Amino acid sequence: MRLDKFLKVSRIIKRRTLAKEVAEQGRISINGVQAKASSNVKAGDELTIHFGQKIVTASIDHVQETAKKEEATMMYTIIKEERVTQSEE
Question: Which ranges carry the RNA-binding S4 domain (predicted)?
């Protein structure tokens, strides 16, 4: 499944267009490699997403084409959430 579609279906990011924009900005990596919106994801992959002041690392448990709101959170497991601090220059 495409990365942008997975992010929308799993409700990690609410809209597919927004997921595509975040990927194009280089703020998403799959298994440590910078990802495009069209990158394929599968169960077992590890996503790292930079949301503003936060970095979220999640493991993909399973992939499905559609999901109800209750099922969406079962598609992934949050491994860690880190706050990004502004470095002094």
Answer: 1-61
